Amino acid sequence: MVFPDTSFLCASYREQANSHRADAFLETFSGPLPVSTLLLLEFRQSVRLQTRLFARDRSKGFSEREGTAMLRALQADLSGGELEVVAPDWADVHRIAEDLSARHTTGHGHRLADLLHVATAIHLGAEAFLTLDANQQRIAEAEGMTVPV
Question: In the CATH hierarchy, which fold is given to the domain comprising 2-142?
Answer without folding.
Answer: Rossmann fold (3.40.50)
